[in-house]
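Entry 12.
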Amino acid sequence: MRGVPLGKRVLAIEDDKDILELIAYNLERDGYEVIGVSSGEDGLAVAGSKGPDLVLLDLMLPGIDGLEVCRRLKADPDTAHLPVIIVSAKGEESDIVAGLELGADDYVTKPFSPRVLTSRIRAVQRRREKVTASEDDVLRIEEMVIHPGRHEVMVGDERVDLTFTEFRVLHILARRPGWVFTRQQIVNAIHGASYPVTDRAVDVHIVALRKKLGDAGDRIETVRGVGYRFKD
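Predicted 3D structure (tokens):
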């Protein structure tokens, strides 16, 4: 059996020894177990073998950088479910967006308050706990099959290569055909109310989705002045 309660094992991928010690000290006081590694390569290995419940990920790492680590974690079926919080000194909006687009659940900039970091961890875990069994069900809409567990979309016999956010947008719409979602509702459903970019970014994802889905993309309808819906 595991030696820590469910949800309390954190993998921290951070090459700054002082920051890693700060993270470990504060999280362990709150009952977490912290597994610390200093490289992306080690982080990927531990994520696949030690069964962490959440990953804290620095971007500027030796060898494989943090964005590539995040991409690989989300592309691997064995680790795609892991919540990832990026903790980085790179605080430009472009850096934040890049991390979130690869599937990170949150982004904390350095220097950070340990209490804020703990709060963000709990918030991410609460959001994940709200996922119901029905949200994991495979959706079949005529020629389209959406598999949440695999983050996979098939149109006919062809697999459609979607980013993490594109997949989430499609899944949110397709689970409630005919239901109209505002842009802000879509953003909140994917990243929570603290997502640090404009809700107009949804329009960019919709354009990309329609293009990648081909004729099946016509099912995503624009409701002028409101948002989007999936044609039932």
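Annotation: Residues 9-129 form a domain with the Rossmann fold fold (CATH 3.40.50.2300). The mean pLDDT is 86.
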